[in-house]
């Protein structure tokens, strides 16, 4: 896929989600110090926080997405440093963050407990004393295939005169993972099938795993579901 297409599909499938923004702003304000957005993509959350005066750094494994984020930050006269790195293996010099946040189920893109452990180790090392890690986990990953009542609405956006539509087709139970199948179509006539796999991991499991890395669970927060997106539980962990 071209760089431009990767950015557009990311925007189509993530860009219109706003239900979680108030909570990230609230957590960032409570943190009262620098914030690290892990899996920041094209900057849906990081740019919103920066526009509210938060000192935020964006980390993602995809350089193309961070390039788009950086362009948008510059266009909006915002300063959002970017770091291309894997969530399981990042080190940011002497910088310490008051809040490390992982929006929109990005932790569930890590395939297993080893991957999550590697993230907790890296995050703990980059946290300020008493800092917090906040992780959004999808609530329901119920399986469905074919025509079912209550199927999420498609994501859609028009860019440069072309309409992009991403239609959820199925969520397939693969045991430890849920495979989310989507049909990506454009008004220019292209069509492709995309699959992402999310680990099925409950908030209590994440809290228990994190404890081994010096991160202690506080009361979790909720993000309600919308017509298009499932609801989330946000696990909050504080550095011991
Ligand atoms: C569901 S998107 C969320 C994007 C953005 N945080 C938002 O809420 O709109 C997941 C993001 O995580 C990034 N990502 C996936 N695996 C990653 C990893 N192992 N390390 C760093 N980033 C990763 C993807 O490139 C993508 O930008």
Brief overview:
This protein has 240 residues and is α/β, with parallel strands linked by helices. The chain has helices at 3-14, 21-31, 44-51, 63-75, 113-125, 203-211; strands at 35-38, 56-60, 82-84, 97-102, 127-138, 144-145, 155-159, 162-173, 177-186, 191-199, 215-223, 232-239.
Poorly predicted parts = none
The count of domains is 2
CATH topology of the largest domain: Rossmann fold
Overall geometry: globular
Bound molecules: S-adenosylmethionine
Tell me what portion of residues adopts beta-strand conformation: 35-45%
How many angstroms separate the termini?
A: 43 Å
Query: Got a strand count?
Result: 12
If strands are numbered along the chain, what order do they take across the biggest sheet? 3-2-1-4-5-12-11
CATH class type of the largest domain: Alpha Beta
Structural class call reads alpha/beta
Largest sheet: 7 strands, mixed
Q: Let me know the average pLDDT.
A: 93
List the topology elements.
Layout: H1 3-14, H2 21-31, E1 35-38, H3 44-51, E2 56-60, H4 63-75, E3 82-84, E4 97-102, H5 113-125, E5 127-138, E6 144-145, E7 155-159, E8 162-173, E9 177-186, E10 191-199, H6 203-211, E11 215-223, E12 232-239
This protein binds S-adenosylmethionine (SAM).
S-adenosylmethionine is lined by residues 14, 39-41, 44-45, 60-62, 65, 86-88, 103-104, 106, 109-110.
How would you describe the overall organization of this protein?
With 240 residues, this protein is α/β, with parallel strands linked by helices. It has two domains: 3-140 and 201-239, Vaccinia Virus protein VP39 (Rossmann fold, 3-Layer(aba) Sandwich), CATH 3.40.50; 144-197, no CATH class. It is built from six helices and twelve strands. The protein has helices spanning 3-14, 21-31, 44-51, 63-75, 113-125, 203-211, and strands at residues 35-38, 56-60, 82-84, 97-102, 127-138, 144-145, 155-159, 162-173, 177-186, 191-199, 215-223, 232-239. The strands form two sheets. A seven-stranded mixed sheet has the order 3-2-1-4-5-12-11, sandwiched between helices. The longest helix has 13 residues, at 63-75. The radius of gyration is 18 Å and the shape is globular. Bound molecules: S-adenosylmethionine. The site of S-adenosylmethionine has 18 residues, from helix 3.
């Amino acid at each position: 896929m071209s760089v431009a297409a990767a950015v557009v599909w990311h925007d189509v499938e993530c860009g219109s989600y706003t239900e979680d923004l108030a909570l990230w702003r609230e957590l960032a304000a409570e943190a009262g110090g620098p914030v690290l957005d892990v899996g920041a993509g094209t900057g849906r959350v990081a740019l919103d926080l920066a526009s509210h005066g938060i000192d935020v750094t964006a980390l993602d494994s995809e350089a193309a997405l961070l390039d788009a984020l950086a362009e948008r930050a510059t266009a909006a006269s915002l300063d959002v440093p970017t770091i291309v790195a894997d969530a399981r293996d990042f080190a940011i010099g002497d910088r310490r963050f008051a809040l490390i946040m992982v929006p929109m189920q990005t932790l569930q893109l890590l395939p297993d407990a080893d991957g999550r452990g590697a993230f907790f180790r890296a995050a703990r090392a980059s946290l300020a004393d008493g800092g917090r890690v906040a992780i959004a986990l999808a609530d329901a990953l119920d399986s469905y295939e074919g025509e079912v009542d209550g199927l999420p609405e498609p994501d859609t956006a028009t860019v440069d005169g072309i309409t992009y539509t991403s239609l959820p087709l199925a969520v397939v139970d693969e045991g430890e993972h849920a495979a989310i199948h989507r049909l990506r179509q454009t008004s220019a006539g292209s069509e492709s099938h995309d699959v992402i796999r999310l680990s099925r991991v409950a908030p209590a499991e994440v809290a228990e795993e994190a404890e081994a890395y010096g991160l202690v669970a506080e009361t979790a927060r909720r993000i309600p579901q919308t017509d298009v997106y499932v609801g989330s539980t946000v696990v909050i962990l504080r550095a011991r």
